[in-house]
Amino acid sequence: MYCIKKVTDDLLWVGANDRRLALFEGVYSVPAGVSYNSYLLTDEKTVLFDTVDKAVRQRFLENIEEALKGRKLDYLVVQHVEPDHSAVIPELIRQHPEIKIVCSARVLQFIKQFYDFDIDSRIHLVEENNTLNTGKHTLQFIMAPMVHWPEVMMTYDSTAKILFSADAFGCFGALNGALFADEVDFAKDYMDETRRYYSNIVGKYGTQVESALDKASALNIEMICPLHGFVWRSNLNELISKYMLWSKYEPEERGVMIAYASVYGNTENAAEILACRLRDKGIKTVIYDVSVTPASEIVSAAFKWSHLVFASTTYNAGIFVTMEALINDLAAHNIQNRRVAVIENGSWAATSGGLIREILGKCEKIDFLENNVSILSGLKSAQLSDIESMAQAISKDFPAPAGVAAQNNQTVPNTTELIPIDPNAMFKLSYGLFVLTAKDGNKDNGCIINTVMQVTVTPVKITIGVNKANYTHDMILKTGKFNVSVLSEKAPFSVFQQFGFKSGKDTDKFAGSGEALRTTNGVRYVSEWTNGVISGEVKESIDCGTHTLFIAEVNQAFSLSGDASVTYQYYFDNIKPKPQPPKGNKKGFVCKICGYVHEGDTLPDDFVCPLCKHGAADFEKL
Ligand code: FEO
Predict the structure, then answer these.
(1) C-alpha separations of 450 from 251, 435, 487 in Å
(2) 65, 54, 70: which is closest to 21 by C-alpha?
(3) Is 17 helix (H, G, I), strand (E, B) or coil?
(4) What is the distance in A from the centroid of ligand 1 to the CA of 201?
(5) Residue 380 pLDDT more than 60?
(6) Mind listing the pLDDT tens digit for each residue in 387-426?
(7) Is there a contact between 286 and 255 (Cβ–Cβ < 8 Å)?
């Protein structure tokens, strides 16, 4: 019996899940299974994107027959010849001899290497940016070599704005009835498996992934359909921003991953003590026993954390076997750009530390800590200072929060007691005020923000902090594009009301704004009451709890007037109407941002202004 899912009105998922696979590619454990995705476009021509692994061929063939509903199969687009996506091609051709195979010359070469069917009579060769019209849809072919094999090709459906991304953006794990990433708690349940998939499958090819991302950035993508894992139709930037980090070998989190190989527990003990000392200093730590945790999970963790510590006993005059396999695996996956420390153990000839350094030293931008720890059989109390020295050396890379620094007698600001965060101190920062605009499909939207900062000159990069409650936030997360219109001192209060005190979900922020002025990224900007416009393209996003910090490259910027930029202080002193106390003897609290008055004796700590969404800290008693 078939099991298919609808992706769009004329696109069906016809893949299948496999939960019995012991090891993906014979190497990677997949305890939660894996999906093999295939998609059928039912346009005037029918187009199948890739096939599946032989393990699920029966279900796949049943799916195809149901999805076609008696129509012939016109095209099979082969994007990747690895057999988990191509194994069923010969059988599919026996059932549908009319198929034309659409692929690149490199794909054709690999198909011929793997299979013996007659392909020459049914080939439709394509090259970079060639297109194929299938009726309503136009498919554009984009080469993505080494993501993850040399022949890999992606396909962009410019009509539906869908990127069929081959292995890229894939994930381990069966789909369990869902199809879209937004149907599950992706960050909690699947991001680790996405990172493990990326780091182990294409981690070695960061440069090539960056090149594919560059090509994709030129496309208007509203949906990503990978060959494994979930389809992305919202918050695309959640995943794309991770790929940007991973492809550059930038760590996602600052903290220390400790991996140890220990025969009788002595090396393990040293690793545990180091972790305790690091935690004492407020530094995040994770520990793995390399004889227990599959190497693919530790490789994935190495792609996540900024600092790596390897602790290994010496075995047969070399590195302990499981650690040696891990270190070689990390080097093979091109790990780079990390701070690394080594602990070695050896009862008569400790060599593991030097050998680890030798292997990892060949990787790019691996910065070894000077402090080594060398143990003879078991850690002795005299060596606790060596562990502490290593922890101290690592902690220099982690500016300690004041509280932790004080507890550890580190240098702290000239105050002897820990004081809570005084919001008035935060208001001493010289914020500006800006209209942040975005566009998603036909929807234009905007909001007011006060956190825009230039961070680099070459290339010009800025950061913006955006409250997650703002609809504009979600649009930027999805599209990765925005404009900042810098408000001038001439801006009237109505501009702040228009963009700051309403939700774009139910109002048109540009209503009555006249001509729709746009920058080259297609996003509207505000030309009245502003003195400059900056267009940004998001390169990274950092989840900061209530807000997301977007780091963006500026791709357009121009001045509109010589008027002075408005500051937060100027807004309060000269633009914002002074709040009027409630009539009678009513008590209340007034929002310092927008003037909203909450009547009552108390204001709950978690109160949020219904107008401007600022919290209780921004209210003052009337
Ligand atoms: Fe899922 Fe590279 O094959």
Answers:
(1) 28, 9, 10
(2) 54
(3) strand
(4) 8
(5) yes
(6) 999 999 999 998 655 444 455 554 444 444 444 565 566 6
(7) yes
Count other C-beta atoms under 10 Å from residue 483's C-beta. Answer: 26
Helices 191-201 and 236-247: angle between axes, nearest 10 degrees: 40
pLDDT digit string (tens) for 554-596? 988 888 888 899 998 888 888 887 756 555 667 888 887 777 7
> Which ligand 1 atom is nearest residue 148's CA?
2
Query: Which ligand 1 atom sits nearest the alpha carbon of residue 82?
Result: 3
CA of 39 to the centre of ligand 1 (A): 15
**Pocket lined around ligand 1, Cβ cut-off 6 Å:** 80, 82, 84-85, 148-149, 167, 227-228
Dist. CA 326 → ligand 1 center (Å):
22
Closest approach atom of ligand 1 to CA 227: 1
- The rounded distance, in Å, linking the Cα atoms of 487 and 284 is 40
Task: Tell me the β-bridge partners of 449.
Answer: 434
CA of 167 to the centre of ligand 1 (A): 5
Count of positions (residues) in the chain: 622
Reported pTM: 0.69
Over residues 336-341, mean pLDDT = 97
Gap from CA of 545 to ligand 1 centroid (Å): 35
The tens digit of pLDDT for each residue in 456-505 reads 887 889 999 999 889 999 999 999 999 999 999 999 988 888 888 877 88
Closest CA to 333 of 144, 170, 197, 154: 197
Q: What does the H/E/C string look like for 449-482?
A: ECCEEEEECCCCEEEEEEECCCHHHHHHHHHCEE
Tell me: cis bond preceding 459? Omega within 30 of 0 counts: yes
CA of 205 to the centre of ligand 1 (A): 14
Calculate mean pLDDT across residues 119-143: 97
The structure tokens listed for 552 are 């963006």
Q: Residue 15, class by beta-carbon neighbours within 10 Å (0-12 exposed, 13-18 middle, 19+ buried)? A: buried
**pLDDT bucket at 158, cuts 50 / 70 / 90:** very high
Residues 249 and 314: their CA atoms lie apart, in Å, by 29
CA of 52 to the centre of ligand 1 (A): 10
**Atom nearest to 36 CA in ligand 1:** 1
Atom of ligand 1 nearest to the CA of 201: 2
- 499: number of CA atoms within 13 Å, CB side? 27
**Is 11 strand, coil or helix?**
strand
Residue with CA at minimum distance from ligand 1 atom 3: 82
Please name the residue ranges forming H helices in 382-470.
384-395, 402-407, 423-426
